[in-house]
Amino acid sequence: MTTGSSVVAELRASLEALTGAVRRLEHSQLERHGPEAEGWTAREVLAHLADFELIAAVRVRTVLSLDRPVLATYDQEAFTARFGALETPTEALERFTVNRRAMLRVLEALTEADLDRPGLHPVRGEEPLRRTLEMVARHDRAHLEQLVRAAAG
Length: 153
Fold this sequence. Notes:
Helix content is 69%, strand content 5%. It is mostly helical and 153 residues long. A hairpin with a 3-residue loop joins strand 1 (118-121) and strand 2 (125-128). Helix 1 runs parallel beside helix 7 and helix 3 packs parallel to helix 5.
């Protein structure tokens, strides 16, 4: 079971890992497509992570301030296709960083009871905040690996 302190540590580590990975990449590496048949470029993965961080922040704050709210959803492919090229990789990383730091401040103030507050996901049904945060951490890990694979070509 995830605790507030464990999820904060994992999400902080994800921020540091992503920042380090992006800073080590050359511009040309950020524009390479991943090995998957229709894989995103590393830049598009970074834009997706920045977009998803916004959605995750809305979910967290909504669950903490409303009783059993419907959780925000979006079409990640449509978002990335429409918005993925609107900012530089540096800008996307800055957006992710600002929003992740804000999320971490909220999470550092959580009680264990807060982690059990439910939201209603349109597909997954009732979901305690704890599970939402575990999903955010898994999402970070998966897309960081995808970004590295895409950059490697």
